[in-house]
Amino acid sequence: MEFTPLINGREYGWGDIAVTVSATPLIGIRAVKYEEDQEKENIYGAGRNPVSRGYGRVKTTGSITLLSATVFAMQATAPRGKLHNIAPFPIVVSYQPETGGIVKHVLKNCEFKKTTFDWKEGDMSKEIELELVISHIE
What we know:
Order of helices and strands: EEEEHEEEE
Helix content: under 10%
Number of strands: 8
Oligomer: single chain
Number of helices: 1
């Protein structure tokens, strides 16, 4: 087995990621997480081994972690000051290295589920993880 050590010479890193919510770039973003999970199961018939495979729902989940000032700014423009009242919106995650290809994932029909604030003595900044409802990823 032969391996090519460098495909494009550079791996994607956090500094290469740009995240936009409804076409607005997020500057105070600290993390983004999303995943797709599809139900799959073996279907059995004659014998001990599966004869086919069944495919079910695709479930998409995710979250974004923002600095508190970014969350407060978003709340100020949200209907009734609540993030979960914002109409469904797209989140675009672009991987844009200085060299190599651009990769773009679009999280479709996102909505915020809840907003949790958890402060303690000594905090000099606060990261707030916002759980998302996502219909699918393109």
